[in-house]
Write a structure and sequence with these properties.
Rossmann fold; 8 strands; two-stranded antiparallel sheet; 9 helices
Amino acid sequence: MRKKNALLVIDAQYDFCHPNGALYVPGAENDMVKLRDFILKNSRFIDHICVTLDSHPVNDISHPAFWMDKDGKFPPPFTQITLADINAGKWTPRFSPQEAIKYVAELEAQGQFPHFIWPEHCLIGSKGASLHDELMSALVSWTRAGKWYQAVTKGTYPLTEHFGIFMAQIPVPDRPETQLNQHLIHTLENYRQVFLAGEAKSHCVATSLKQVMDYAPALSKKLVVIEDIMSDVPGLGHLGEPIYEAARKQGICFAKAADIVLD
């Protein structure tokens, strides 16, 4: 089997990519059309496609129902919760309080992303967790030639965020689903080029890119970031920018979909 070109698609799901999605990323629906066209145009030359699926329980640490204030009310989406807030009694975890407080403390010490409350999104088994229709139609067409796509689930453990596809924000020692996904790294390293697209540019794509740079240097040399098939969470693009800047300095390739020619 030829192992030349792989396509890695991050979290191209209804809740992120459809205007009615719970955590819609503006522009993502247009990204999906470009992604569909990219797959169909290059169908003969794409040897492997891996799609990742953000998948959360309702009572996830990043969802409103995990937290409450002194009046028993849940925080609204897009609230930032700090360790100082917790210590002051502004917000209290409703579940696993010791683990939750430890998580927020470790996240702040890490210094990459603050703890943020999102709308309930990509609930396990829900419509919101499904792949966007444009991508799904392209995948079905691509597989009819006798190929198989790989699906990787992330985010099922409720006590840590899991932006990056290779590892949770704070890995938990006895939870393998939160730890570095060596199998996925090794799978992608088998290909000469790995094209990266998906949502959201500011969070899950950026963190995945950082994880490649930090933990998979051999893979980083094969990456091509398709920079016009990804969009930022509004107002939060600055969180990912340092990662993209570091990637460019490291020599990781960036290209627009129309400029990529596969063989």
